[in-house]
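User: Please look over both lines:
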Amino acid sequence: MKVFFMIILVTTSFYSLPCKAQTEKELEPKLENISWISGNWKGEAFGGQVEENWSKPSGDSMMATFKLVKDNKTSFYEIEIIREVENTLILQLKHFNNDLKGWETKDETVDFPLKKITSNKVVFDGMSFEKISDNEMNVYVDLHEKDGTTKTIKFNYKK
């Protein structure tokens, strides 16, 4: 009987050990907690070269530009911001053709509300940033297809 009790005790102790996913501490929704996103990032996606340039936090926002070059021609641009609004963060962006004609209407933005921040991840609803190292990050973007399905695209960026 004592041996059986010990097995249960050891098994219970093993399964109650915290794992990384359970103990990863959520951080406050402050720009300073995501400042690692800032920098000049380059990678490949959509069959071409992508570049994203994020500013350091200043004021109540961070800003970025995005460019896709395919077959030596710019396909499109984005202007992005992450800003502090009502004790949280929101990522907003606008798309532009290669001639800077906008995809969205004048007052329209594509908005991604914040879900959570940890030491190496920023998760917005529809877009996430994952710090791999000081010089590498992954960005995951949910693309909504015409047939109603959603596909997640991974951008691997290096400084």
The chain is about 10% helix and 55% strand. The chain has one domain: 25-158.
